[in-house]
Structure formats: C-alpha cells, structure tokens
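Practice problem: predict the structure.
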Amino acid sequence: MSRIGKMPIRLADQAMVEVTDTMINVTGPKGSLCQALVNEVTVTVADGTVTVQRIDDSKRSKSMHGLYRMLVSNMIEGVTKGFTRKLEMTGVGYRAELKGEMLALTVGYSHMIYFNAPDEIKIAVPDPTTILVSGIDKALVGQIAAKIRSFRKPEPYRGKGIRFEGEVIRRKEGKAAGK
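Answer:
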C-alpha cells in the first residue's frame, strides 16, 4: 500500500470538492481548480475527508495512487492558502521591477528581459533583488519561477544569477595563479 496514497486528506472548512466520473473540482476562497481523473484510482469525499483508492495492484495503479492523493491535497491547499516561491537575485547591477503587469529584469545582458506571466499568477517585487511568484496552482507557480530563474541561472564561480530562496550553489575554485 502506498504510504502517501493511503493517508486521508482533511478537507479545509472553506474548500469544497466535487468528484465526477472524469474530473475533480476543488473550489475555495482563492479560486477553483480542476483535474482530470484516470481510471486506475477512485476519489471519495465523506465526513470532511477525501480518500484516494486504487482499483487493483498493477504498477500503474500504484503510481497513480500516490500521485493523485498529492494532486488533490495540493489543490485543496492552493484554493485555501495559495503557494508562493521566492527568487533572489545576486550580482552587481542585477535588479527586477514591475512595469504594469510585466516583469522587467536587468541581469547583466546588454538589454532588459521582459516577462509577462499568465493571468493566474501574481508577481510581486518587494525590493529590487527579490521576486515573489504566487498563485493557487502549485505546478504553475513552480514552472513560472523556474522560467524566471532560467533567464540567468546562478553560476558556480561568483554565485551571480537568479536563485530560489534557500538554494545552495556549489562554488568552484577559479583558476590557480601562475607560478
């Protein structure tokens, strides 16, 4: 039995889950999310908990069991609390600013990089070297944060670039001085 899949999900007070044959819809104060269901798992809602069960012991059913339990759990957490990823910029002259709805990045290139996020994602710049990406869909928040990071990944020699909060960059030693 899947350790993650067998755990029931407590339903938050504000969240509402509807299960049909092919879809799971979760609605809460921050919005609503839907996820397509596969045939290998069944989702039931009863007594303020959501449980995910697999239909047989095939390899695909076992893998879908834990996956769909976490997907539903993340959907419930997203519509009630939301998700946020914090990005930090390190480097001389590296800065970010919002120009309307567009994120403008100065990251050491000869030009500025402009990034327009989808409508479901909110981008905030509390200070010039910090970017906050937030939304209700955990996968989309992570994907957008990774896209912003990809504009200037942290380099291992000086550590300059855009990194996730708490990300550790393995530093390399530079060239040895000539003898």
